[in-house]
């Protein structure tokens, strides 16, 4: 082997393979898709929580008071807030997918605008839902 040839054991630059999460930023449509899947899974857990509430309501006052106590606690309210946001996000993003299935809003700019609308709309509707819920108390 000559001096100009590199030995097979020569060190190579230590760099990540591309695309790598440290150098590659996920686009908004990818983040929206991942979030849609996560909220779908979260809605399953939230539906079990809702079923627990319904069973407790049918069982009697003592069971219902227990569930209300859990859901009325700060952690319970945080879980309900997350469940409400997941519901709104999943609903709005589902409508966005229906528009896409019909052939609309498929241009890149419209896809990004739709993503921002879904994120903003879900946060706004969650806040409105909680304001309305506490106003009715």
Q: Class, according to the CATH hierarchy?
A: Mainly Alpha
Helix content: over 70%
Distance N to C terminus: 84 Å
Biggest pleated sheet: none
Tally of DSSP helical segments: 4
Rounded to an integer, what's the Rg over CA atoms? Answer: 24 Å
Q: How do the SSEs run, as a string of H and E?
A: HHHH
The percent range for strand residues is: under 5%
Mean pLDDT, to the nearest integer, reads 90
Helix/strand/pairing category: mainly alpha
Task: Kindly give the count of domains.
Answer: 1
Morphology call: extended
Low-confidence stretches: none
Find the count of extended strands (DSSP E, 2+ residues).
0
Question: Could you say what the CATH architecture is?
Answer: Up-down Bundle
The CATH superfamily is identified as: Fumarate reductase/succinate dehydrogenase, transmembrane subunit
CATH topology: 3 helical TM bundles of succinate and fumarate reductases
């Amino acid at each position: 082997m000559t001096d100009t040839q590199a030995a097979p054991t020569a060190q190579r630059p230590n760099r990540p393979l591309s695309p790598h999460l440290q150098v590659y930023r996920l686009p908004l449509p990818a983040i929206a898709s991942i979030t849609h899947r996560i909220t779908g899974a979260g809605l399953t857990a939230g539906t079990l929580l809702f079923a627990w509430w319904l069973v407790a309501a049918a069982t009697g006052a003592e069971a219902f008071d227990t569930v209300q106590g859990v859901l009325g606690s700060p952690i319970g309210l945080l879980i309900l807030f997350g469940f409400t946001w997941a519901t709104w996000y999943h609903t709005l993003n589902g409508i966005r997918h229906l528009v896409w299935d019909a052939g609309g809003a498929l241009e890149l700019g419209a896809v990004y605008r739709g993503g921002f609308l879904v994120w903003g709309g879900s946060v706004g509707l969650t806040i409105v839902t909680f304001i309305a819920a506490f106003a009715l108390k």
